Amino acid sequence: MASNVNPTVRRRRLGQELRRLRELKGMTAEEVAERLLVSQSKISRLENGRRSISQRDVRDLCGVYEVEDSRIVESLMQMAKDSRQQGWWHAFGDIPYSVYIGLETDAESLRVYEPQIITGLLQTRAYAEAIVQGGSPESTEQENDRRVEVRLRWQSRITADTDPLRLWVVLDEASLHRVVGSRQVMREQLEHVMELSQLPHITVQVLPFEVGAHAGINGQYSILEFADAADSSVVYIEGVTSDLYLEKPHDVQKYTVMYEHLRAQSLNVEQSRQLVERLAKDYAR
């Protein structure tokens, strides 16, 4: 088991602090890159927390920024050391969405809009297996099994006895009608959604077909929020070959407003449960 230090969050916080030091110095990322004889993209990746950062990188950057307080330098060096530790998910090998898992592991709350499938945190094993196999037809059975195990381990955030992740999910009605695996798998899956939705920290709403065009028409996204004020909210958009992380306040605000519209357009909690229950019974026939 890995340390309880979250390397993804450590990298992110370290990157934010390095960006702050650069801006205080009045330097651009391009100017810093020229001084250190590295690419501008490396500086950008270090600052956005998407790249592992070494203690040597921190030392060199502090030198460029003329940081004279040894306590600040030592603190940043320790953060760099912590950021190179491995989270629990690394034990499963190369996972495409490992950065997202790291962020979610430290998040306080999560808002998700899912138009196509039941979102990962609410999936049963059988449903997850069918989704992973269907979505990765060229992957080996071993690779798919590993992804399923990560997904199931990942769900511990919403079932934890202390400080569980606060989750709000808007599911498009299409995700309830798409038969993944089999009708039995779907019945069990919808029953699982109903069971989890009874938990006080989990809210599930369904966006019905009759709404027509809506605020989430462009696709799936998630909004992660953190307890530490130093960690800004993140909008996560999953892609096929790469994922998108939006952290600028303007972007986060835009998606937050969109999510409020989605919640308003959806069935209320009780109506959503009734629809899920009715469809679960239909699958049992």
From TrEMBL:
Single GO MF annotation: DNA binding
Domain HTH cro/C1-type, chain residue ranges per copy: 18-72
Identification of the protein by name: Transcriptional regulator
Organism: Streptomyces pilosus
